[in-house]
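Hi there. Long-time user, first ticket. I'm pasting a complex I've been working with (about 1359 residues overall). I'd like to know whether the download I got is complete or cut off, because the file seemed smaller than I expected. Thanks.
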Amino acid sequence: MPIDKVTLEILKNHTRAAAESMAYTLYRTAHSTFVKETEDFTTGLTTPEGETFATPTELGATWFVGLNYGRAIAMIDDYRPGDIAMTNDPYSGFVSTHSPDMHIWKPVFHEGEIVAFSVGHIHNTDVGGAVPASLSRTLSEIHQEGVRIPPVKILEEGELNRQVLDIFLANVRAPDQNWGDLKAQIAACNTGERKVHEMIARFGADTFREGVADLLDYAEAQARAIVRTLPNGSYPFADYMDEDSVDGRPCRMKLTVIIRDEELVFDFTGSDPQLESSLNMPTGGDERHVLLLVGMTYVLYSLDPSLYLNSGIARVCRCILPSGTMVNPEFPAAVGMRTLSCYRLHGLTFGAFAQAAPDRMAGAPGSGGPIMNVNTIDNRTGRRIMAAISPMSGGGGGRAMEDGPDGSGANQGFMKNTPTEVNEAEAGIKVLRFGLARDSAGPGLHRGGLGTELVFQAFSPNTRVTARNRDRTIFTGWGIQGGRPGGASKFILNPGTNREVDLKNTDILTIGPGDVIHVTCGGAGGWGDPFRRDPEAVLLDWRRGWVSAEQAREAYGVVIAHGAVDGPATEALRAARAGGEAVGFYDVGPERAAFESVWTDANYDALTECLAALPVHWRFYAKHRIFDAVDMLDPAARRGDGSEVRAAFDALRAEFPQLRAARG
Amino acid sequence: MPQRIEKKADYSATGGRFRIGVDIGGTFTDFCAFDEATGALRTLKILSTPETPGAEVMQGIAELDRRHGQPASGIRFFTHGTTVGVNTVIQRRGAALALFTTREFEDVLEVARLKTPDPYDIFSRRPPPLAPRERVYGIAERVLKDGSVETPVDPADVRDAVAKAKAAGADTIVVALLHAYANPANERAVRDAILAAEPGMAVTLSSDVWPVIREYERTVTATVAGYVQRRVAAYIGSLQAALRDAGVPAEPMITKSNGGIMAAELGKARPIAMLLSGTASGAIGAADAAARIGAQDVLSFDVGGTSADVAVVQGGEPAFGTGELVGEFPIYVPTVSVTSIGAGGGSIARVDDFGVLKVGPESAGSRPGPACYGAGGERPTVTDAFVAMGLLGAGALGYGAVRLDRAAAERAVGGVAERLSLGLPEAAESIVSVAVSGMYLEVSKLMSRRGADPRAFSLLAFGGAGPMLGALFARELGMARVIVPPAPGVLSAYGGLIADIRNDFIRTAFVDLDAGGLAVLEGLAGDLEAEALAWLREEQGFRGEARLIWSADMRYLGQSYEIETPVGRADIAAGRVAALAEAFHGEHARVYDHADAQAPVQAVNLRLTVSGAVPKPALAEAAAVPGPAAPSGRAAVFLDGAERMAALYDRADLLPGRHFAGPAIVSQDDCTTVVPPGFAAEVDLRGNLILTREG
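Hi, the file is complete. Here it is re-exported in full:
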């Protein structure tokens, strides 16, 4: 029997208080600076079946609202009071989504029965493996990404399982930090357990159990009501990462959002085969896996921020996940850098929903800016310095009622930068510029948000710069409804000198004294025809240093002279181009348009089909061979109907007889 | 540098015997008057006059004379707090700012610290800065992290910027340059060049406002300071004139966000220090009231019409924070940390599309206010719910300023009752319970952030609606004791009355904690001490004992956040590295539950707080007359799911030593105290009402 709607709201506040208290406990007692800086952790309470019904919103990562612990919980068959289990293995239980994320869960008992699990994760700075921090695009097998702990009890009836802990700590680079953070996680779970007991004392066990089920139903009902405001239909969209591996080929992610009344289907058919890099997303084929639904949760919550955030939301959606693809990779594909794929998927999801609700959604979020670290030597003390410098974030897309927010927003609103004064005091660098990148916003009636821009100089030899999650140097963030794409992200060594190097998507390099690095995040996409933008708004952006006179003229048709809009010249320019360029719903920019003139939908669909027929371990190789073959074609011979792809595939099968015997 | 003032506050007797604290709020202005001859503490609440600020003060002073025979000429000490600065920011009625930054860093306010207000909302955005980007001008200059000037200021470059700023309509220029905390020379050179070009221009330097590392934090604080400066100065000037005209001999003092006070004259130049003084004084007043009865760990619970302001007092000291919000903007000067929860007497209840009852954050505010105020409000508020439960309405609110219309309250609550299929009193109690659970959520977060257990705390309930909600809220949090002071509606005014003169000083050091680092700290300590004493002695004219409180913001190497750690001046002077390190390890363990005695430590900032004690009122204590209190009547109320007969008490009749049990209602001019079933109440020797939860 459902509980009354007054008690439900009161219980909701108590469960939220529990989750938030857990988060504060973890944050307060965590050892590693990484956790405190990035807030890359979660806490929460789940049902005995593993559905998260309470999640903190003030602290912690924004990605794990609908996380389901069910499969991991089920991998341990006997729970007793005082037990705590943990796992970081992306292939056991599919709760951890890359090896640095250590998840733990503690059963909460009432009168001998499990009434809830108190859960949470921390991104550990390092869990061993081939590279420090355990993450690199170059890795291809999960075994290179650090020690894997399959679900195991780290505490048994309150007693620490020393052997397991020792094995874990023996395999990591900074064991004190991992152990310190694990203790903070345990403290948070204990807080959650205590709060559940308090709630049972306050509300009674039956009301608590029923109420928790009702809270999940409540979020589900809210989510359904939001979906109902969207028109039924099938909304396909694709987006690309520049590279599927270091110096690789473009990587396509495709999503068709199908809206039927109050339910959603996310069909990922057409997304790339699983990759020989660590960009894969380990979902275990779970049709409601949290990693796939982050974008959906963002969209539904943003359309109606009264939405209560718990895993009830996930029930409105079901994913179609072809096996052996980057969204459902098979063991032992590497998954460490799934962060970048996840970012792309968020934008892709926003874009697909934009077709359904063009006046409520925005252009592409800014993307492609890295998380940056500098490793150098302080010339004064001789001490080696490792410092995280600012994450380079981008803004949100323009939308029907306003410009996108600059610098950060959309799916990057949780990031915090490092102040310039702290960078200079700590990182052994001098910052020459930090701000918003001029002309980076996607032009539009309402423009996209500008990306951030950083220019800095090194002073010591062997200064190593790492830039994780670099992307969008080729394929830019799309605009919608006539809005233009955002600017590409940039990564340039010694700009404006004869030693200038375009680093593109490089993610690690060594520089020396005097070297200058210029890095920007890609800009967000615009909304609506920029030629309809109020010339005074363009002038204001020009006065703010955010739009150049050239961009004002070229992209907006606004002529600025002597610090003011030249009205007649602007009118003439705008009239001359009126109706000149027809743009579809999305404006994906010239680079992607050029790519897609070769790799048409039909060609890519043919590729997907061909590769799906191959054994998983052949797919990535075959993709690259087919790309090579299509490249070699005489442009005149290209038909874009899939035939050239099939021809290349047939040639490949002819070359490798073993492929004919193998089954996909 | 703050300008020198001519008149100094006079702390010696002027022949008067009255000390007055005033707190000017959006709706009411509160007075707390202490008679040194008799030890009597008198209170007064009148409607604020936002259109003519200062008029309400004059009105109140006249009223105190009329009621209590306290002539203006007998006022020897006058402190007051005002929301004029905060309102300037909230209503965006401040200066037309221009901002001068280091060139290539002009977007500092736009970028802020990147994080958006609600990261789950992809459309969330930061508020537009007080200095619009088109009036931000980069100056070609550069100071390096060690304070050395790499590129000096070119006055011609500044002149250009001033001309542009003037042409763009700026009337105030804020200067915030990189590393100005380490060396303010370039900021001062820019100021000189501005004043040479435009002698009348108002200029605010970030290094004057609060010279702390982190450019966004320093810049946003300076822009808020520059934004409010003119209005606050004008306001203080008119108040000073009005007091003079009224014949008040005392030089006025104003309350500060750090819980202290300073000469009002100084507020004209340093308005940033007083912006959040209202809530700070409330916390100071609460801490004092609680300490007087031996309660050291206290949650202050100040509930008004639109918000509940909660401060944590531990060991008798209110917690401090930086980054407290003025409107939408954080300021980084030391401020008594007060968490504002969007739930108060005016919070509106509604039933959502799924039949779930919600309360707030929407509020009926003071206009139209709750339905029961009869000022046009129709939607049900928390106050209406209390009226419908029969808990409010026996007396009047706000010194007769408002009459309660029970029928209007019931009409409003009736709509919710219908949606919930509940009876009227049940629906009303549901509204209260949901409101209380929302406060529970927010305060749980606050306490977990500090690692504190609310059950070990007492609740000090004040403000118009605090005593009404206090016991219900304490019960939800598992707290055993609620203290309701004699005049709960005017505790902020009381806080100003008992606050010390106080100011904060900071220098960024950014050194390793070793012998060399301590030598740097020692140099800075000398500067700080000279500056602090000059402020107290010369600018404040304080001749009593100076109290110096030293602390350092320290961290482990590699951390990006610091912990303010109390340190000994003698340890710095003697170069005792180990003593400072130990202090930090201890503080780290206290705050984070762990410490690493082997890890290298850095000292980022050195801080000094200087204070001069103001004599505290020796409040009169009455002799206890133990025994049960006599109710003035009985009323049917609805509480804990049932109709009950509650005893009614008039607060004025509740003499020390009297006791009674819930359910009961205590009425007074200020407010109404609700004593639910399960609570015992007793009046202590100072007239505090102490509610204790049984069992």
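A couple of notes from our side: Chain B touches chain A through 66 residues (CB under 8 Å). DSSP finds 17 helices and 36 strands in chain B.
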